[in-house]
Amino acid sequence: MRATTVVVIAALTSAAAVHAATPKQDPAYRVSITGSLTETDTVNASSSGCAPAEAMRTISFHNAAPLVQRASQLAYARNGVFELQATEHRSVTLGYGQGLQCNDDDVGCGTVTYTIGSVGTGVGVLNGKEGRFTLFFTSIKPDPFGGKCSGLNHAWRPEGTPGSSGAVSIVNFPPPAIWAIPPHPFQSLDRPYWRPLTRIDLYSGKQRMIAFTDNGTEPPSSRGATHTMTWTVQLTPVP
Q1: Residue 106 has what DSSP assignment?
Q2: In the chain, how long is the greatest CA-to-CA distance?
Q3: Full 3-state SS string of 185-238
C-alpha cells in the first residue's frame, strides 16, 4: 500500500510540473496605457506678413479604469474596448505685424480634463496586418475649451475640424494627415504607427512593454501643423 501511495504522489507531482510548464492557451494581461499627442501650428512672417505666432496643444492620456484583456482580444485590435482619461493643455503665442494681430484667440487657454469614450478606441495587432501592434482612438465631443483658445485660424474649433459637422471637435490618434490610414494621395507608403509584435508573442503569456514615438509635419495641402505622437502599452500577465 505504501509503495502504491508513493507512486501515485509522484505521478501527481509530475503532472503538476508539466501543467505549470505549459503556457496558458489564452493568457490574460493587465493592460496599462499611457501616451500623448502634441500639435504645434506656426504662422511665419514670409507667408502672413505677421511676426511668428504659435499655437500648441498637448493631449496626455491613460486608461481610465483597470483593463484586462486576453491574448485572443489583443490579437485583433477592435473598436470600443476601453475609455481614456485625458488632460489637454493649450497655449497661444500672439504675433503682430503691420498693426495686425495674427491670432485673435489667446483667451481661455490652460488645462482641462475629460474622458475619451470607448467608441473608437482600440489596442492590439491590426486586423490583416500580422506583426503590427498599435494603439488608436477617436475623440468626438464638443470643444472642451468651449470655443476659446482655438488655435491659429480657429483650427481647434468644431468648424475647423476635418470631418466635423461643426457641432463637435474630432481628434484622431494617430492623425491621418501624417500617419495615413489608408495612405493619402501625397504618400507613397503607409507611414508606420505601430511596433513589431506578433500574435504568437501575445500567446506566450510573457510580460511586455511596447513603446512608440514619432513626429511629422502635415503637407502644405493640409494645415502644415507638426505632430509628436507617443504611446506605451504595458502588458502584465494575470496569474
Answers
A1: -
A2: 104
A3: CCCCCCCCCCEECCHHHHHCCCCEEEEEEEEEECCCCCCCCEEEEEEEEEEEEC
Q: Which stretches does DSSP call E strand in 28-142?
A: 28-43, 53-63, 68-70, 84-93, 96-97, 100-101, 110-116, 122-125, 132-141
Query: Measured between alpha carbons, how far apart are the two ends of the chain, in Å?
Result: 37
- CB distance 148 to 156 below 8 Å: no
Cα–Cα distance, 170 to 141 (Å, whole number): 7
Question: What phi, psi does 73 have (nearest 5°)?
Answer: -80, -45
- β-strand pairing of 169-173 with 195-196: unpaired
Please check whether residue 39 is in contact with residue 177, taking contact to mean a CB–CB distance below 8 angstroms.
Answer: no
What rounded mean pLDDT belongs to the chain?
A: 80
**Averaging pLDDT over each range in 6-10, 32-36, 108-112, 217-221, which range is the top one?**
32-36
Q: Other CB atoms closer than 10 Å to residue 217's CB: what's the count?
A: 14
Residue among 133, 125, 28, 119 at smallest CA distance from 82: 119
Residues in Cβ contact with 74 at an 8 Å cutoff, skipping those fewer than 6 apart: 29, 31, 123, 124, 125, 202, 235
Rounded distance, CA 219 to CA 14, Å?
63
Given a cut of 50, is residue 238 above it in pLDDT? yes
